[in-house]
Amino acid sequence: xAQLRVFGEGPLAPATRSGRxxxxxxxxxxxxxxxxxxGYLRAGFVVDGCDIADRPNYPFPYHHGDAxxxxxxxxxxxxxxxxxxxxxSPPCQHGCALTVGTNASQGWGxxxxxxxxxxxxxLDRTGLPYAIEQPNGRAEIRKDLTLCGEMFGLGVIxxxxxxxxxxxxxxxxxxxxxxxxxxxxxxxxYDGPYVAAYGNGGGKPSVPELQEALGITWTNVRExxxxxxxxxxxxxxxxxFRVSRAAxxxxxx
Length: 253
Hints:
It is a single chain. It contains seven helices and nine strands; from the N terminus they run βαββαβααβββββααα. The chain is of the alpha/beta class. The protein has a seven-stranded mixed β-sheet with strand order 3-2-1-4-5-7-6, sandwiched between helices. Strands 8-9 form a two-stranded antiparallel sheet. Strand 8 and strand 9 form a beta hairpin. Helix 1 (35-42) packs across helix 7 and helix 2 (67-77) packs parallel to helix 4 (116-126). The longest helix is centred in the C-terminal third of the chain and has 19 residues, at 231-249. The chain is globular and about 55 Å long. The model is unreliable at 1-16 and 97-106 (pLDDT under 50).
């Protein structure tokens, strides 16, 4: 007889009384408005978030507080064992291409703290498989996986790199881009099939255009949209993880 467990209690997918397999639970750290979370839901996970900012548009239960302090508390209490996987998107201003390029050269912005290393240290302590997401730039992560909007037919390019802890995923072929990102460059306007999902002005897209390009409909806050990763990315990661885990354990993940 299959062992019965409380829904979401542990990292494996327990059988229910009906014989169906319940969804594994995922912890979404630095969750913002839930771009990553929605993709993981579509990949078959139950999602809990955590963000230091108030995120009323986040579509799932979440803890309002410091992500690293919350993760440390979950480890200390043993409650981290409720989860099968952890996704983390620590703030990227320290190492992203925009900050270390244009913003730095113009003296814009302030000092940014690199949270990638302390995030990785805590994630390794959990013993759980994980993914750390960062944009192109100087962030010191392994680029185990790089995803682009064109791989999923999206209206953004939005390259994102992922360090995968404790597991691996296939790298999709990087499909050639179909043209330019729409907007002004050095005073000249360029048209193209992609919108610029960052900042404001300079020919940047409207909020409805951003929503359509990213595949995000549950928030209309520009800042949240420009910070989000498209759900298609995390859906790919979540499905790849579940296939990988099923192949390893011989059971559904």
